[in-house]
Design goal:
Chain lengths: ~270, ~450
């Protein structure tokens, strides 16, 4: 049947962020919030209880002027695969409210099942998970601008970046309607990818050699997706979280900022298996 | 006394006004806690100072701490009913009472801590078998049921309840099968105490907490069970001594206290050796393999320094262990009291480290230490179980035969109390005048 979608093909959707291109403008953060109905507070000055699925960190090389260098590092959920889908957060959730989708490699969050124990937040070393400390309140009239494709979350549950999963669902529906079994690369792109004015973010299927993300980082599937590309790295590679967000930089100090090193260790070590 | 008919026969208790005043004071603290609890339930966890870095905070520490010190119930039960240390029958009631308080408090805290309390049952309905917290929830609930079953016979031994033949026979028969519940309790405790250790130990994204182990169980699984069994009895002994001090009379014979203290001392001694080995292995093998030097966990912040490691292992482990395993140490009141206080602080500090320091340590290189100060609502709700526990101990001590040796250890007072009771029964009007003061 020509309209049948392939159910067996394992996709690993992932992201490559070129840190040498990122200007730290924050367009990705804004696009993410608008796309995903991310609630905000009246006073957002305390960043430790405000929700930013995509967060841009500012890194410096720690050197004094004139040798100071700055790097902006956008950090979405890393959609860790861990070992066989046992990502740090998925394996600890007591109510199976977060799940590793073996079809797409996306770590989901089931808001209506989460009861707010926050164990997943404790497990995530990237601080990519956020708790709804307040009920979402939208300024008058703004609720009309909410995306109908993403359910707003209630107080007391955890939320995080979903790689705009609703866009994947829409793209899949469209492909099915048009009698195709594959979702094309350009049909499923995250909001942050499309919003980045510098083109620093690339998104696609890491398992598909035709997709740009695969070509940019050349993930080594024999070594838990570790990048073969010399300028590519993942955050906290050594912990064995096996993330699907890769970063690129020509600068050595930026690449080293991605992980913790003992004084005598080299850049690439075998990650732990869990 | 207005309630003399409820007080165990032959035992002397403080005047009613003192009893009511004490309940009033701790009741006020409990009410303050209930108010804060309602705020958290109705307004949400924004009433706390927790944040996305500190998702686990004061409550979870209090939860782990009360479960650790409440471990005296299962371990004393194991020693009494399974291993056959018969002398411990003279302190088991109190150990069960403390365990009941600690575990009911733990469940209350969990009920407050979750963001959607009405969905708490999802942990059973949508259980994830890979999660240590799932195991904690199952075993904790089951063990609380066991503790309730263990506490009921004591309640039924109240002088008036005991007059009802059904209750008398029920209590008697429950005592007869208590070994089964003690064994069940020990089995369940082994797993939930361990799982609480596993909660931190499996966090492979948090190198400060992560430990290797056997199969699915990290070393912290075994260390938590071991430490609860080791330190729990110290908390039972501490509260026994405190109750003796307040009631101004001896309640448990020295040989019973010394036996429990000696066992606890050896357990702490062996636990401390295991903890030291774990710490050395973690510091030299596990953490470096993840890219972390030990100094990373104990520097560049205002609170967490090497002192906490020293306080936990040396002051809270080695020192009390050395005091309690020596006869001289156990028999010297000052040394003994110091040892049990240090032990209780030590195990609570361990739980603090395994919750709050885990959250505080930065993992990404460009992250910073996260420190947090609890809000008054968190403090009030943490004091709520303490106040509730004190109230339950006061009521149980007054109306139930918690300490079987009390009568034997206080013969003079007992005779007087007996006479007063008899007179009061003959002439209720004299009751108030004849009430003995003190105690």
């Amino acid at each position: 049947m020509s309209k049948e979608l392939s159910h067996n093909k394992v996709r690993r959707y992932g992201m490559v962020i070129d840190l040498d291109k990122c200007t730290g403008c924050g367009a990705c953060m804004v696009a993410c919030m608008a796309e995903n109905n991310v609630p905000f507070k009246e006073d957002e000055s305390n960043k430790r209880d405000s929700i930013t699925w995509m967060k841009v960190y500012k890194l410096t090389n720690g050197k004094p002027f004139p040798n100071t260098e700055i790097c902006y590092l956008p950090r979405p959920c890393q959609h860790c695969e861990g070992h066989d889908g046992h990502s740090p957060c998925v394996s600890v959730c007591p109510a199976t409210a977060t799940d590793y989708n073996s079809e797409t490699g996306i770590v989901s969050q089931i808001y209506t099942r989460c009861f707010g124990c926050r164990y997943c937040m404790a497990a995530c070393p990237y601080h990519a998970r956020y708790f709804n400390w307040w009920d979402p309140v939208w300024p008058d009239g703004m609720e009309k601008y909410l995306s109908p494709n993403v359910s707003p979350r209630m107080r007391g549950v955890v939320e995080k970046c979903s790689f705009c999963f609703h866009r994947y669902q829409l793209a899949k529906d469209k492909a099915y309607y048009e009698g195709r079994s594959e979702v094309r690369e350009d049909e499923y792109q995250t909001a942050c990818t499309q919003a980045c004015p510098a083109g620093a973010i690339t998104f696609g299927d890491l398992n598909n050699p035709l997709h740009a993300v695969h070509q940019m980082v050349k993930p080594d599937l024999k070594h838990a997706g570790r990048p073969k590309s010399p300028n590519a790295f993942r955050l906290l590679e050594r912990l064995g979280t096996n993330p699907k967000v890769y970063y690129l930089s020509d600068r050595e100090w930026v690449r080293r900022a991605g992980d913790n090193y003992m004084a005598d260790t080299k850049n690439h070590l075998e990650p732990k298996e869990h | 006394m207005i309630d003399s008919a409820l007080i165990p026969k032959g035992l002397k208790r403080c005047p009613t006004w003192q009893f009511v005043a004490a309940i009033g004071v701790f009741g006020a603290v409990a009410l303050w806690g209930v108010y804060a609890m309602l705020l958290c339930w109705f307004k949400g966890l924004n009433q706390t100072n927790m944040n996305d870095y500190y998702g686990f905070a004061l409550w979870i520490w209090a939860d782990l701490a009360v479960i650790a010190v409440g471990g005296g119930a299962f371990f004393t039960g194991l020693l009494r009913y399974i291993i056959g240390k018969d002398e411990l029958k003279n302190i088991i009631n109190f150990a069960v009472l403390i365990g009941f308080i600690c575990y009911s408090s733990a469940l209350l805290i969990l009920g407050m801590d979750v963001g959607q309390p009405l969905r708490s049952w999802f942990i059973f309905w949508h259980a994830n078998v890979h999660s240590m917290l799932t195991e904690v929830a199952f075993c904790l609930s089951c063990y609380f049921a066991v503790l309730t079953i263990e506490y009921i016979p004591l309640v039924l031994e109240n002088r008036q309840m005991d007059k009802v033949p059904f209750f008398h026979n029920l209590s008697h028969n429950m005592h007869g099968v208590m070994a089964v519940f003690a064994a069940t309790g020990a089995f369940l405790s082994f797993f939930h105490q361990g799982s609480l250790g596993g909660v931190a130990g499996v966090l492979f994204g948090r190198p400060f907490a992560f430990r290797e182990g056997i199969l699915i169980w990290p070393w912290t699984f075994f260390l938590f069970t071991w430490s609860a069994a080791a330190y729990g009895p110290c908390f039972t002994l501490l509260l026994t001594k405190l109750t003796e001090k307040i009631s101004k009379k001896k309640l448990v014979k020295d040989n019973v206290v010394e036996l429990l203290a000696k066992i606890s001392g050896w357990m702490i001694f062996t636990y401390t050796i295991a903890k030291l080995i774990d710490t050395i292995y973690w510091a030299n093998i596990t953490a470096p393999s993840l890219g972390f030097k030990l100094s990373h966990f104990y520097s560049n912040n205002a609170i967490y320094g090497y002192w906490i490691l020293f306080a936990e292992i040396i002051l809270g482990g080695v020192v009390p262990a050395l005091i309690l395993i020596t006869k001289k140490g156990r028999q010297n009141p000052t040394a003994f009291t110091t040892a049990i206080i240090l032990a209780v602080i030590g195990v609570c500090l361990n739980r603090w480290v395994m919750v709050l320091q885990v959250m505080a340590v930065p993992v990404m290189t460009f992250d910073t230490w996260a420190l947090y100060i609890p809000s008054w609502q968190e403090i009030a709700t943490t004091l709520l179980p303490v106040a509730y526990g004190v109230i339950l101990i006061i009521i149980s001590f007054r109306y139930l035969p918690v300490f079987p040796q009390e009568l034997e250890l206080n013969p003079d007072e007992s005779n007087k109390a007996q006479q007063n009771t008899e007179k009061a029964e003959e002439n209720p009007a004299l009751d108030a005048k004849l009430s003995p003061a003190g105690a």
